[in-house]
Amino acid sequence: MSRTPWVYAPAHAWADTVELCPDEARHLVTVLRLRPGAMVTLFDGAGRSGPFVLAQTTKKRVLLRAHAAPTLHPRPQGLILAAAWTKGGRRGFLVEKAVELGIQDIWLWQARFSQGNIPEDGPAVWLRQAVAAAKQCRSPWLPGLRAFASLAALLAAAAATARRFVLWEKAPASAGIRLADLAAPCVVAVGPEGGLDDEEVAAFIQHGWHPRSLGSRILRAETAGVYVAALAHYQTEQSPPSQDAQEES
Ligand code: SAM
Fold this sequence. Notes:
- This protein is an alpha/beta fold.
- It contains seven helices and twelve strands.
- The protein folds into two domains: 6-72, CATH 2.40.240.20; 79-243, 3-Layer(aba) Sandwich (Alpha/beta knot).
- Strand 8 (105-109), helix 3 (122-137) and strand 9 (144-148) form a beta-alpha-beta unit.
């Protein structure tokens, strides 16, 4: 595995010469102290990565030049994690771990017992957290990030996803989550720290979602999310057929 630094530039910024955004530029020049001629791996968060050379560094501009053709990586597992809005620290932790575990999409939704409201600029903040996590685990993919101002909006967005589950702390032990539940395409909802309202659970069920239990212990919301993400990751690691197929062809 290459140990060159990983640097992010969104797909629309990609060209033979790429100018980095201020955050990425500062990280390369001030934190990593790279100088012209250094090699980096650029990724676009949409499955593309490639070797670039640091061509120019000034206080205001950092330019990278393509060194070889990029590689296109297959999209990771199709698990959508729909987490109810929670406090910042917990949410950041969940976004970071979900990226490391290869979640396809992270959806945040406003639940009745959510603490606070989803801000307008939320996705920009989560994008920064997701980019940091993707660099850490060298993932060329970032999850799709979406926010829903109501449960109704979440239910509508998920209607076309074949398999829909809601983690419910009051679900009977007989409704324990199974690995087979998490085969893609699949969406799993997690409630907020205050738990799910009975009316919310009824709405999930009415829209074809199945309640699932994670056992007798009541877990923190972010622990429940990471639990499911890790199960899905395990399942994918046991049978990663599409990735092998694309690399060989
Ligand atoms: N306030 C609730 C209570 O005391 O019963 C607990 C809510 S829990 C901290 C936050 C969310 O994590 C839940 O709404 C659920 O989605 C998920 N969760 C936590 N433990 C769970 C379990 N054992 N089974 C299923 N879901 C669980």
